[in-house]
Design goal:
The protein is of the alpha/beta class. The protein contains seven helices and 17 strands. The protein has a single domain, classed as 4-Layer Sandwich (Metallo-beta-lactamase, Chain A), CATH 3.60.15. The strands form three sheets. It has a seven-stranded mixed β-sheet. The longest helix is centred in the last third of the chain and has 13 residues. The model has no long low-confidence stretch (mean pLDDT about 95).
Length: about 270
């Protein structure tokens, strides 16, 4: 199975970067897109440079409803007629930073359906192909992974802390265990991998994406300890992981921790 990083905060020479994430997954049985980046422009440019067509996708997975993961949907709409879009029912809720800036979806469910996309909105784990699973809602169980801070949710005119229950991860059956694609890991990367192991019914050996440890301190050491105990063998860290966390992960996992960049391809 081949994974291509189409959008990330950093980029390889000749590719473009933006604050966001999108990963294209393909093998002989399916072609799916995990998140769509922020603008759609970088996604399209990098896909073209890698020779990837976004026509005829078997599915689009939205990790959660923030615009740096869903912003490319609008410009992709003409390519996605008839395509299933897998997401949590609350992915369309209005989401904001604590300073009031809107960071939620920029396209509505009705607009997506009008463009011909088929929304598949579920809370529970789901198999989307023989070797592809979604975690559904992620249980918050670890004592050291705090609730997300600085993010708000608006419902019925009321603003509250956003628990981000709409977040989910994509679980792929690799050659030597499960590979897990994570958007931002707002639920905690360890909580996310535990949910992935249950959904895929096996051990997680590879994790790819954003760990949301930019502002973490003591949590980083606890996370590394848990990843080692889980038997995670390869880490591809990007997007919102944070420089301090990446440095600690590379110290702990050596060459088994690789920072990601747009334009990179990974075989699992």
């Amino acid at each position: 199975m081949k994974l291509s990083i189409l959008v990330d905060n950093r980029a390889m020479p000749g590719f473009s970067a933006e604050h966001g994430l999108s990963i294209f997954v393909e093998d002989s049985r399916c072609r799916v897109l995990f998140d769509t980046g922020r603008s759609g422009t970088v996604l399209a440019e990098n896909a073209a440079k890698l020779g990837i067509s976004l026509l005829g996708l078997d599915g689009v997975i939205l990790s959660h409803g923030h615009h740096d993961h869903t912003g490319g949907l609008d410009s992709l709409a003409r390519h996605l007629r008839g395509v299933r879009v897998f997401c949590h029912p609350e992915v369309f809720d209005r989401k904001l930073y604590e300073d009031g800036r809107d960071i939620g979806m920029e396209i509505t469910a009705k607009e997506m359906e009008y463009c011909g996309m088929r929304l598949v909105m579920e809370r529970e784990p789901r198999k989307i192909a023989p070797h592809c699973f979604l975690t559904g809602e992620i249980e918050r169980a670890s004592a050291y992974e705090p609730e997300p801070k600085g993010f708000l949710l608006e419902k019925n005119g009321e603003r509250m802390t956003d628990p981000m229950i709409d977040e989910q991860a994509l679980v792929l059956g690799g050659k030597d265990g499960l590979a897990v694609l994570v958007g931002c890991s707002h639920a905690g990367i360890v909580n996310t991998l535990n949910a992935a192991s249950k959904a895929g019914d096996g051990p997680v050996t590879t994790v790819i994406g954003g760990f949301h440890l930019e502002e973490a301190s003591e949590q980083i050491a606890s996370t590394i300890k848990a990843l080692k105990e889980m038997g995670v063998a390869r880490i591809y860290s990007g997007h919102c992981t944070g420089a301090k966390a990446v440095e600690a992960l590379r110290e702990a996992f050596k060459n088994r921790c690789i920072p990601t960049s747009a334009g990179m391809t990974i075989e699992i």
